[in-house]
Specification:
14 helices; mainly alpha; single chain; MetI-like fold
Length: 276
């Protein structure tokens, strides 16, 4: 039994090692390509350690596109979407767990059913709606779809449902209104779910390519994924500048995951798994 368990541990760790290498390799390749010359990138594409380190790709990046402006555009859209998602999803989850009303189960089922609808199905009607509302070329179509998320509502319902109702009743006796109860009791006790929802929304909005491609038509208003795409052309293919831009665009996500996400990510995933 000990030999069998030892062999299983070896196989398990080998599988984990292969998975980790498969996940890390593209990131290492991106860092390597950002500092390689174009000649070395084309001739020794699989070599991860550059023979000659160059910063020319970063100069090309800042000269070819308004990188700082597009970086700030992406940051504004992602932060706004994350804040609004946390606020609205939290309020919806609070309403489902705080009050008992007729049709609550059917309404929750309808909200969860929206997760089964492919986003591509909604592209045409959403485009017509935003165009008729004269919102084409603004950031509103990039933010509104992220504001209400079925998964975020479900996750926060699982967490807020564990809050003892005695706390709500005590707050009501002290004269608190519903918004005060939400802000002072529900939010502090649901930080794990709200935190993970905010991080996931920020990451999804930051990396979103299709939505800005459809609705934005001015270079100064482009988000970073669209700006990096325009570094490539039919007549000129250079991997260095896009990889340098991708490397810089990873910094906010890494910082958020390291500072905020690490604190709430595991708690948010495990929250609601056990009730009691």
């Amino acid at each position: 039994m000990k030999k069998k368990r030892f062999a299983l541990n070896i196989v398990f760790h080998l599988v984990l090692l292969i998975a980790v290498c498969a996940i890390i390799y593209p990131f290492v390749f991106m860092i390597s390509g950002a500092f390689k010359t174009d000649f070395e990138m084309n001739r020794h594409i699989t070599q991860l350690i550059p023979r000659e380190i160059t910063l020319d790709h970063f100069h090309t990046l800042f000269e070819s596109i308004p990188f700082i402006t597009q970086f700030l555009n992406s940051f504004f859209v992602a932060v706004t979407a994350a804040i609004l998602t946390v606020l609205i999803d939290g309020l919806v989850a609070y309403g489902f767990t705080r009050f008992t009303f007729r049709g609550r189960g059917a309404l929750m089922t309808a909200i969860l059913a929206t997760m089964l609808i492919p986003p591509q199905v909604l592209m045409v009607p959403q485009f017509q709606m935003y165009k008729n509302l004269h919102l084409f070329g603004t950031y509103v179509p990039l933010i509104i779809p992220s504001m209400i998320n079925a998964f975020g509502i479900f996750l926060n319902c699982q967490i807020m449902g564990q809050i003892p109702r005695d706390l709500y009743e005590s707050a009501m006796i002290d004269g608190y209104g519903e918004l005060q109860i939400f802000a002072r009791i529900a939010v502090p006790l649901s930080k794990a779910g709200l935190g993970i929802q905010g991080v996931l929304t920020f990451m999804n909005t930051w990396n979103d390519f299709m939505t800005p491609l459809i609705y934005l038509n001015e270079e100064q208003r482009y988000t970073l994924p669209i700006g990096l795409m325009r570094l490539q052309s039919f007549y000129k293919i250079s991997y260095g500048a896009p990889l340098a831009g991708a490397l810089l665009s990873c910094i906010p996500v890494i910082l958020i995951l390291a500072i905020v996400g690490q604190k709430y990510f595991i708690q948010g995933l495990m929250a609601g798994a056990v009730k009691g």
